[in-house]
Amino acid sequence: MEFNRKHLLELKGLTREEITFILDTAESFKEVLKRPIPKVPTLRGKTIVNLFFEPSTRTRISFELAQKRLSADSVSFTAATSSVLKGETLRDTARNIEAMNIDMVVIRHGASGAPHFLTQCVKASIINAGDGQHEHPTQGLLDIMTLREKFKTLEKLKVAIIGDVAHSRVARSNIYGLQAMGAEVALCGPPTMMPLDAEQWQAEIFYNLDDALAWADVVNVLRIQLERQQKGLFPSTREYHKLYGITRARVEKAKKEITILHPGPINRGVEIESEMADSEFSLILDQVTNGVAVRMAVLYLLSGGRGAERFDESTN
Q: pTM of this prediction?
């Protein structure tokens, strides 16, 4: 099989075979990351620009590290130190990129659809690192990879996505990706944080956390976006934690082992208590490790790579 897509803009529309192909390739790169010199020359000579119009730590560093591990030349751009502050538009930025003969662009933007717009402006391959309230495809892929490592198959696995689903791009990528892989998905959160058209995803919807935990094998706990608290989506962080916070007492009440994921950053004591974030139930650090391997796989495949293979250490 070959990955014939030029861009990775979303998980919506990707088939089970395509997602599996990406994850199998990521497993090969995860082996590379365990070597004394965790580097291969696969993208030597390729130039990648990281365009981050929103603050980011984990995603940006993960992409930058993936690019270095593949020996690519990379340049990172942040809006706070760029000509955007002088009024430069995304189209102008794109035209400048095109003039520099860039091979790939990784973009995070506050406007939904910005990566799609960029595909119309440049010849480079575009990777969506999160756009508005649309999607965050590589986060969805690393979440799926983490679950596949533990459960081997996602067929009929019950995954509950907890929190601010309405504003979450991570939730959307997880929904599309998990369902493509055969998992069952449920959504849980306050009514004010549930999309009005949530039924379109054919997912179970819970407004009571205990009911969701009784149903689920896995919970993916979304970050509560404290910057939205002023909009009155919930009374207070204390009240939210009381009703929807993941605690040991709640998990033990479900009387079964429940696996915990969190895309980060974690608001400890709000959506999840600190003990549970670091507990035996948590795969949060595995997600971080898998993030680099998944992004290496995506960069490799979009550059024309042929999928999972053995990368020879002697070529470092």
A: 0.94
